[in-house]
Amino acid sequence: MATIVQFENVGLRYGQGEEVLSDLSFSLTSGEFYFVTGASGAGKTSLLKMLYLAQRPTRGAIHLFGTDVVTLPRARIPGFRRRIGVVFQDFRLVPHLSAADNIALPLRIAGVLEDEVRDAVSEMLAWVGLTNRADARPPTLSGGEQQRVAIARAVIGRPEILVADEPTGNVDEAMADRLLQLFASLNGLGTTLVIATHDLQLIARVRSAQMMRIDGGRLLDPTGMLRHPPGRQA
Ligand SMILES: Nc1ncnc2c1ncn2[C@@H]1O[C@H](COP(=O)(O)OP(=O)(O)OP(=O)(O)O)[C@@H](O)[C@H]1O
Question: What is the Å distance from ligand 1's center to 15 Cα?
Fold first, then answer.
């Protein structure tokens, strides 16, 4: 399997502060399932932001799909972003749009024909079990329903990587189980998953997942698996 993400000696500081992340060097392999863990404030969200190109590192190199994205001209960033679906910690749904219209957004922005958008949205609503809530606005949806709208919106463009920040943070165990099934089905279709979570039960359920643990601003990788994933030469 191909290396899809590569960080080399990446460091990040905000403003003039201390580095919040240092010396991150790891590779992610296409089709794998990764959890990012670490205490609150460890830098999980910051790492994910660099991965989905919302934050440039202050040092080091990041290659996405084989391209150096740190020196990439701004105009080329949206093309790379489209290949990465993001489920934000706070969902970021548009409150005045229906669930269906929120899910449709990435396709409408990309200029996809309306007939195709409608079919894809119906398929996504069915997949996340929200067909009967298609017309509901986010403020009238439960936390778990909003989370599923956010997941559907993140995957409707068929991203190669799905990044999710604390996706089970605000849902009960049954809903966490349901979300995990959605993630597992995507991973089964070949999507690379990168999920930041504190949820040890969630982690325990995915035996095949690899762990990225951040502590003291650094990545702990006791097995060396992230540095040299199977199938890749050191
Ligand atoms: N925009 C910012 N400006 C300044 N400091 C920031 C910014 N974003 C994050 N930080 C700091 O960087 C560190 C890492 O934050 P980050 O949100 O990445 O951690 P986290 O592991 O995702 O935390 P949590 O689990 O609580 O969401 C923290 O000390 C935080 O205060």
Answer: 13
Give the separation between CA 147 and CA 70, rounded to whole angstroms.
30
Q: Whose CA is nearest to atom 9 of ligand 1?
A: 46
- Is the distance from CB of 27 to CB of 229 less than 8 angstroms? yes
Q: Which residues of the chain have pLDDT under 50?
A: 233-234
- Residue 232 lies inside a defined structural domain of this protein: no
Atom of ligand 1 nearest to the CA of 214: 21
Write out the E strands in the chain: 3-13, 19-29, 33-37, 59-64, 67-68, 84-87, 161-165, 192-196, 210-215, 218-220
* 228 inside domain: no
Dist. CA 20 → ligand 1 center (Å): 8
Any domain includes 229: no
How far away, in angstroms, is 46 Cα from ligand 1 center? 6
- What integer pLDDT is reported at residue 222 of this predicted model? 67
Contact between 25 and 31 under an 8 Å Cβ cutoff? The reply is no
Residue 48 alpha carbon, nearest atom of ligand 1: 18
What pLDDT, on a 0 to 100 scale, did the predictor assign at position 133? 98
Q: How much is the ipTM here?
A: 0.96
Residue 17 lies in a domain: yes
Quote the domain boundaries for residue 56.
3-220
CATH number, position 30: 3.40.50.300
**Predicted TM-score (pTM) of this structure:** 0.93
Lining residues, ligand 1, CB within 6 Å: 14, 20, 38, 40-46
Domain count, the chain: 1
